[in-house]
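Quick log. Single chain, no ligands specified.
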Amino acid sequence: AVTDFLTKIPWGDLDFLVQGDRRISYGGFARLVWGTAEALRREHGFARGDRLVWARRALARRQSGSTRCRF
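-> predicted structure:
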């Protein structure tokens, strides 16, 4: 399980991403990624190997202030 893995990695509590005063740990990032993957499987029928494309209109505009994941 994800929680078992996260308790075994020694760097899970270390900072992975820092944006100003916002910080996310390696473990926190892993939870977000795996949680998103689980939601895509459960709610939208995605399976291992499926591809997801995410497009936004304002790609050239500097994005700031929220988490964005691209697969």
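Residues 26-44 form the longest helix (19 residues).
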